[in-house]
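Figure 3 (text version): structure tokens given as input.
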């Protein structure tokens, strides 16, 4: 029998984004928090899933500082290992305006698929496996 362990994502309005995994199925004890990304102002509306056996997070990377290389984009990051003790590089999947609000991350055939809101164009968008550009609501 497979017991799913609880996954916790720590997001606060100041850096960094942290991740911790429960040591047991009831969530009574947790492993040490791991920094996922240190350089963000606020990760809004995170969506956490297991994608191809590894924890992954999609979030709206909010930053009011216009000179920042990160900000107001749909952002995605996946762990390097199944335990979530090491994380890879974050990617801005869509940065055309203020995009990425309310992301919903799901696994589709072992790959990430994300629906999200594009506030700039008032549209719902989707990006999934094997897509170069996001699909948008007509």
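Below: residues designed for each position.
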């Amino acid at each position: 029998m497979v017991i799913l362990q609880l996954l916790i994502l720590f997001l606060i309005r100041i850096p960094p984004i942290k991740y911790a995994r429960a040591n047991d199925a009831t969530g009574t004890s947790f492993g040490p928090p791991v920094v996922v990304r240190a350089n963000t102002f606020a990760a809004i509306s995170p969506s956490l899933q297991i994608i191809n056996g590894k924890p992954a997070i999609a979030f709206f990377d909010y930053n009011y500082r216009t000179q920042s290389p990160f900000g107001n984009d749909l952002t995605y990051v996946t762990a390097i290992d199944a335990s979530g003790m090491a994380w890879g590089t974050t990617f801005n999947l869509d940065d055309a305006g203020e995009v990425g609000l309310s992301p919903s991350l799901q696994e589709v055939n072992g790959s990430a698929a994300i629906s999200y809101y594009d506030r700039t164009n008032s549209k719902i968008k989707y990006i999934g496996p094997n897509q170069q550009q996001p699909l948008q609501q007509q």
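The longest strand covers residues 42-51.
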